[in-house]
Amino acid sequence: MNRKTPTPSRYQRNALAPSLIAAAILFLAPALILADWEPLVQFVASIFALIVGWFAMQARHWWWIPVFVAIAVIWNPVAPFPFSGSVWTTAQPAAAVVFIVAGATIKVKRK
Questions:
Q1: 54 in a domain, yes or no?
Q2: Which regions span the lipid bilayer (predicted)?
Q3: Which of 3, 44, 59, 62 has the fewest Cβ atoms surrounding its Cβ within 10 A?
C-alpha cells in the first residue's frame, strides 16, 4: 500500500471562522430583526468586523481595513444609525458576502 503523508497547508486563514459566523448572522438578520434581536445583529456584525479587520492587518491585507471599519461603524450598537427599509435589508446580505470573501482571501504564511 502506497500511503503518502499529507503535507500541511502553507497558509492559515485566521479570519475564516469569524467571517462565517458574522455572515450567518447577517444572512439571518431580516428574520432576527423582526423578532426584536436587532441589537444582537449589531453587536455580532460590529465586533466581528473589528476582529476580521485585525486579522487583515496582521496579514498585511491593508485594503480590507477600511471596509471592516466602515462595517463596524455602520452596525455599531452603541450609537446606531436609524436605517430601515429595502436599503438596509439589502445591506445585510451584502455585508455577509463581504465577510465571506474576506475570510476566504485573508491568509498568512505558516511559520
A1: yes
A2: 15-34, 40-57, 62-79, 85-106
A3: 3
Where helices occur in the chain by DSSP H, the ranges are: 16-27, 29-34, 38-58, 64-74, 85-105
**Residue 4 within any structural domain of the chain:** no
Task: Give the chain's domain count.
Answer: 1
Q: How far apart are CA 44 and CA 41, in angstroms?
A: 5
Q: End-to-end alpha-carbon separation of the chain, Å?
A: 32
Question: Are 103 and 52 contacting, i.e. CB atoms less than 8 angstroms apart?
Answer: yes
Please check whether residue 6 lies inside any domain of the structure: no
Q: State the residue range of the domain holding 69.
A: 20-109
pLDDT tens, position by position, 45-59: 999 999 999 999 999
